[in-house]
Amino acid sequence: MSKREGYISWDEYFMGISLLSANRSKDPSTQVGACIVNNKNKIMSVGYNGFPIGCSDDIFPWERTGDEIDTKYPYVCHAELNAILNATSSLDGCKIYVALFPCNECAKAIIQSGISEIVYISDKYADTPSVIASKKMLDASGVKYTKLTGTHDTLTIDFREENI
């Protein structure tokens, strides 16, 4: 008997963990997760977008429009920043897996933390000043960014006992 075919790659595995982590986000419009991995394929940290500890998601706003102070934007921690802050050891030389290309604020944290590569799925905000600035900083600092290419378009997680 030979090994099973069709198993997922390391990149698909870690992006899957990032996407699963996104399901913890309570943001009604955008859920993003992040997974940080060292060069031995060990998970160093995970995170998702949400409010800082102690800031109730029942009190702070989830709005996307209106006066900035009344929107989620000044309060929400992005998945990348949460994953970096959740880490308990050095992230030098690690990869971060995240569905959306990081904004300029997350790019700063990624660079400062020593992460050397970003693996992402979507760059749908590529034309925004935030992502343009992000790429300028990542290029200047030598942080590599790679669009995920895999052989699987979907992964299914099934919690039903009879399917285990």
Give the quaternary arrangement of the chains. Answer: single chain
Record the strand order, biggest sheet.
Answer: 2-1-3-4-5
Largest sheet properties? 5 strands, mixed
DSSP helix fraction: 25-40%
Q: Which shape, going by the Cα principal axes?
A: globular
Q: Give the low-pLDDT segments.
A: none
Distance between the termini: 22 Å
Total number of β-strand segments? Answer: 5
Q: Per DSSP, what share of the residues sits in E-state strands of 2 or more residues?
A: 15-25%
Radius of gyration: 17 Å
State the secondary-structure class. Answer: alpha/beta
Mean pLDDT: 95
Count of alpha/pi helices: 4
Order of helices and strands: HEEHEHEHE
In short:
The chain contains 4 helices and 5 strands.
Overview of this structure, please?
This protein is an alpha/beta fold and 164 residues long. 27% of the residues lie in helices and 16% in strands. The protein contains four helices and five strands. A five-stranded mixed β-sheet has the order 2-1-3-4-5. Helix 3 (104-113) links the parallel strand 3 and strand 4. Helix 3 runs parallel beside helix 4 (129-141). The longest helix is centred in the N-terminal third of the chain and has 13 residues, at 10-22. The protein is globular. It starts with 9 loop residues before the first helix and ends in a 17-residue tail after the last strand. The model has no long low-confidence stretch (mean pLDDT 95).
